[in-house]
Amino acid sequence: MSLHRVETPLRPTGFRAKLLITMMLVITALTAVVIVVAERNLTANVEDRLQSSFRAELETFHHGQELRQAALLERVRTLVRRARLHAAIEDDALDLLYPSATDELRDLMGSTRSAVADASTAYSLRAEFYRFLDRTGSLIPVQAPHGAGELDAADEAKLRLPQAPLTQQIGYFIRSGGVDEDTIVETIAMPIVSLEDGSVIAALALGFDAAALGRSASDLSIKRGVWVEGRLHMNGLSAEERAAIDRDLTQTIAAGSQNENGLPRLLGSAPHLLFYKHLNPGSLYPPAYEVCVYPLAELAARKRQIRWQVVAVGALLLLGGLGASHVLAGRLSVPVEKLAVDSAEDRLQRERAEAALESTHAELQRAARFSADASHQLKTPVAVMRAGLEELKSHAKNSPETADEISALIHQTFRLSGVIDDLLLLSRMDAGRLRLAIKPVDLRSLIDAALDDLGAQPDAGTLSITTTFPPDLEVLGDEHYIGLILQNLLDNARKYNRPAGRIDLTARNTGGELFLRVGNTGRVIGRESREHIFERFHRGSMGENVPGYGLGLNLARELARLHRGDLQLLRSEEDWTEFEVRFRAPSHPSPLRSDA
Amino acid sequence: MRLSCRILFFVSLLATLSSVCARADALIEGRVTLPQNRTATVMNKRYEIVAKGGVLAVNPPLAVVYLEGRFPPPTEPPRATMTQKDLVFSPALLPVRKGTRVEFPNLDDTYHNIFSYSAPKRFDLGRYRPDERPIPSQLFDVAGLVTLRCDIHEHMRALILVLDSPHFEVTDENGRFRLEHVPAGRYVLKAWVDSRTVHAQPVELKDGDVLRIDFP
């Protein structure tokens, strides 16, 4: 029973709040996801752009450097073929070597540091000095300066090689005597090869100012430097950063690998991109590395800025979304709230109805039980009374008046028993305790029996009875109660007939159902009474001289319905009243519940 | 080439004349064993100077055979010619007597710049064109080997062997030589094979002698 179910009723305001909170949560989550994704994408973009521009800058520089070096090498290669140099070396005229070279190298020499300093990234194409190395790689001394460029003995020593090189050698060293800034020198040692047998007879070592290597690119905040002679030469670095790069490079060189990809490293406290490039791979001179440091501080700042922008936009979006969700939640919850209110009312009504039904049912049960009990209790005294009256009647000394009186009383006890029986039956039906023994019943024999009973009635003699039946008149039902229905109907047809009236019984079988019509002449049922004739204890406007208690039709209809049939008034007009009862025919045997 | 032949002819005519005056002649002939050819046969008899380990020689190999001794100084300075034709010195190896003035006519259509850093004679003729007149020349008055180069064309190389003797000859490509009209006397016959290899053989000549000497 849903009556006792305990349920939390849906509160409309609660629904609205829940909807709003859910929408807000969803919108917040979505916004958060959008913010995270957008921030990631944007910062990745910025990072890519910065890195690629950095790389492009670096590549441009390297490209320029390569071009310069290629041009320079070509120049020097041409130079070392010069006949005078060969003549001086091969024809045993070393005294003429430097003077001849001064002549030959006139257009290559003449670097001025001040001129180069202007072009910050440009390498010098002009040599600062040159020296010759002999077959053993030792320096051929300069007799007189002659324009070969000044060089300390210590620096000259750095030009030395284990032997005259077979191929060009590129080296980098730091000039001693650089006071305020590191003076990086790039050395190209080009072998002088005999034109006849291809053997290396000497080498020409040219020194170029490579200070540009240590200078930073102008527009990007790249710091550039050279790691040579086991030391980093880069301006504007803290001791800590310098140590970090030193350490890194030492490891790199030990591992024999290069880092040109620019892995982010933590130098000091700030992250940097660090690039190395081996400047002279395979050279007999000590290895030198170009080092480029790109501080990511700008990138970090840019990222921060983007993050704030994204967060600000996200916050605006969130605000808008929350506002929209508020409005939307309000709108959406209106019909739901209405529904909730309606359903609450419905529930209330249903509960009331259920309660009423429950109480009615209980009362009905009580009443039925009461009437059954009452009927039982009544039957015994009636029987006792009748026996007593029968006893009194048999006394011979009774006067004829007294005997008539007693007979009338006995008759009344029969009527009383009849009423009590009917009431008992009804109460059993109402309580649902009536058991039917359903089986095919021959209706004709039942009708015959009922007509017999009818004929025994004192006023039945004047009535003419006609029957019109099909050959098969079997119905499904309880023989006793079907007989009771017929008896009631025929009894009524007799009681409410006029003298010398007529009773018609017509049956017809229509596939699965059997209709029996009972018509009689006599006073018709008033139009206003027709809807009440099946109610208990209703007798309509029948004359008080007609015996009955107003239970018969009600009983007959209830019984017919218990048999899944029905009883109805077909018509009542012009001296003719006709009822029709419907039964089920056994051709369609269906499991009937014996218990209604 | 023709010009140099003519000059040679002229010089030998002079020598013949002087020997006719002396009326006493000897002849030395023989063969110098030359080193194996280092390269395949050279087309058009083009000779070049090659150096290996600082040793200069002619390729394909030729030798210079000359007499060392005491000779009267020349009555007038001898002259010789080394041309530059087709970016090559010709001849590649030129023996001259000390005191010879060698002319260097440029027969190419381009500039040449002949110079020498060799100790016996250092000079630099500078750039000159074929029509340069007078023809640039140098006096070689110190005996020794002089390497000639062209400053413009690094591959050009020639040797001038300055000898203190009027009797010398470049062998043919088989190493054969023939020194004629040699006055009687004691000499040392030498064969220059490359800048480091000079064979020597003392000889004593009488008038009318025909001496055959082969160098290993």
Structure description:
The complex is a heterodimer of chains A (596) and B (216). Chain A is built from 11 helices and 17 strands. With 596 residues, chain A is α+β, with helices and mostly antiparallel strands. Chain A folds into 5 domains: 16-50 and 300-358; 80-207, Beta-Lactamase (2-Layer Sandwich); 216-295; 364-416; 434-584, Histidine kinase-like ATPase, C-terminal domain (Heat Shock Protein 90), CATH 3.30.565. In chain A, the strands form 4 sheets. Chain A has a 5-stranded antiparallel sheet with strand order 2-1-5-4-3. A 5-stranded antiparallel sheet of chain A has the order 7-6-10-9-8. In chain A, helix 10 (479-495) runs antiparallel to helix 11 (552-562). Chain A starts with 11 loop residues before the first helix and ends in a 12-residue tail after the last strand. Chain B is built from 1 helix and 19 strands. Chain B is 10% helix and 47% strand. Chain B has one domain (2-215): Cupredoxins -  blue copper proteins (Immunoglobulin-like, Sandwich), CATH 2.60.40.420. Chains A and B meet through helix 2 of A and strand 2 and strand 13 of B.
